[in-house]
Amino acid sequence: MFRYEIADNLGMKKKTDWAEWLREALRNSGMTQQDASDKSGVPQATISRIISGTTASPTVENLELLSKATGYPIPLESGEINEPLLTTLLQAVMAEATKRGLKLKPDQIAGVAAFLYREAIKKGKVYEDGEVGLAMEVWLSITRKH
Prior knowledge:
Elements: H1 3-9, H2 18-29, H3 33-40, H4 44-52, H5 60-70, H6 83-99, H7 106-123, H8 129-145
Helix pairs in contact: 1-7, 2-4, 3-5, 6-7, 6-8, 7-8
């Protein structure tokens, strides 16, 4: 979860033709649109709109559900993500948000985690608990102004 949003926040998302991606995912998995709908919970009509190009920017949730159902990964541009570090940061952000009673959207959680990830890579260290809260406040204040 959140891998796509974080890749986007890290500037690693490439312009993806979601219609082509989904056609390829279905072809590789041997699934029909209805099979994918049944397995993922994404309505067949939504899948059809993605494939036809009517929905050029499907929701992250639908992409993740379809990726899991078909076993076909969401494409990311080249660049390796340190998964253990990212997992640690996501957990820290979610814990801090819960502690503060904040109901953050997935893109906000991903944005804060990506912000912390970039800084951790630059500084070569993972943030301490108090620093996660401070970074979250800074990131949220910056993004609310834009």
